[in-house]
Amino acid sequence: MSNKNLFFKSGFVRAPLQNGVGRYVCQLQRIVFKFCKSSGGSRGLRDYIEQDLVQFAEQNPSVVVYLKPRRHRSPVAVAEYLNGSRVWMNFNQKTHSEILKWIENLRTQQDDVAATRLRKYQYTDHPSIQGPWTPFTFKDPELNVAELPNVKFGANNRLPKTATEELRLLFEKQKLEDVKTAE
Amino acid sequence: MAFVRRFMPILSRLVQNTSSNQHQKIHRWVAPTLRELNRREDKNGGKIISPRNTYLEWNLEAELFAFGKRLKEDFDAALLFQAFTDRSYVIKEEMKQKEIKFDIKMKDNRELAEDGYKFMDEYIDLYLQAVLPKFPIEGVTGIKNHLLSEKVLANISFHLGTKDIILAAEYPVDNYKLANTFKAIVGALYRSSGEERTAHFVRDFVITQLQGQDVNEFLHIEDPWKLLKELISKAGSNIEPRLIGQAGTNTLLACYRVGIYINKEMLSAGFGETVNIAKEMASREALKKLFGTQENMYPINFRLKGIPKTNPEMRYQIAAS
User: Fold this and answer.
1) Number of domains forming the structure of chain A
2) Which residues form the Ribosomal protein/NADH dehydrogenase domain (chain A) (predicted)?
3) Interface contact flag, B71 A25, Cβ < 8 Å
4) Nearest CA in chain B to A31
5) Do the domain assignments include residue A129?
């Protein structure tokens, strides 16, 4: 995490209110377009309102659309989401097609996701599915029927190989190779 | 932040675009001005947050229409409006009307909330009994009480966007009002769309809150071994606990493992730092297996259609014990 991200709010990937388990609820609840009727900066937004807004409202009856004309101020969209958050976006000097894409972005997100630093790319309520470890967790089933004490299970196999053992293995390997070359 | 940005000198704004430099040149008068504004705000009793429905861009009718569409339900408009009218709002309006000698009757949502609660209470009970066929009735009631608790209902209500639409005397609305409004919405839906649609609504928004939760947490068992023994002996079988593993005895990290056997066949195993705890854990595990709510159970079915019927024969009775 760099210094730039210190004041980013952080979060996990979560669906609000188990969205989609039952039925899908569009998370954008209302959107306010503020624009000027005459200034050039609002041109793109005015075009959008003239050409696409009615269709947007028809396709998304669950989103309340407000238009707020105001003189000589730059155009702005304010999107409000079901989790109570509010996303402000400046549309000054943006073209019609840019605005179209940004509004699609506002409609499909659940919050200002770009303003959240994801702590992880996945999330689970249950980090372990096998439960806590115990000394019996990965026990060899063979042990259940073994007669103890047992040479196999009693052997100490945790020590590293001794130098003598290593030499003996090298010698045996060499002998095999000698036999091969002789053949 | 926007305020600060606005008063950055234009030249520095151009240079600072990459923002690798820690110093942002902000005019010297900005900080004292902000401080003064803050002081005046505090003097007037803190920041005033006006509720959303006092904004210029607010249309209650449109909001109510969108609310119904959001949930993909067809509400009766008058009923939905009534569902959003809180008692406190009606009282406030009546006081106002008395002053100006005016009288319009307003209905509050208490009656609808009562209807909605009654419906949810019955339906959730039936639904849980259908999807958890072996789980004891006490556990089903425990889950139901959790789902119908104020906290859970208020959370659902909030995330469906009722917060701003509720007509109340004070804002922001508290959890009680949020939960009450949600109950009233269920009641309103029941009256306008009938039983089945309401049932599916409750299933999709309330019962799904169980997703990712352990249902066993809602069933409190005092002595699991005693209960298990009673249940098994009723079925006419023998049950015995066996110590099947121990490690690190007489140390701080002692670990015992107890298995529970029915007719010499292992039912479950549990571990703990003493034999008694291990036995208790093993019996809890065994009970989960009997109730069909073990760790690796299938997820609860959230797609049952209509209103399920009860089938009490299969269920374990623990009330008698």
Assistant:
1) 2
2) 37-110
3) yes
4) B57
5) no
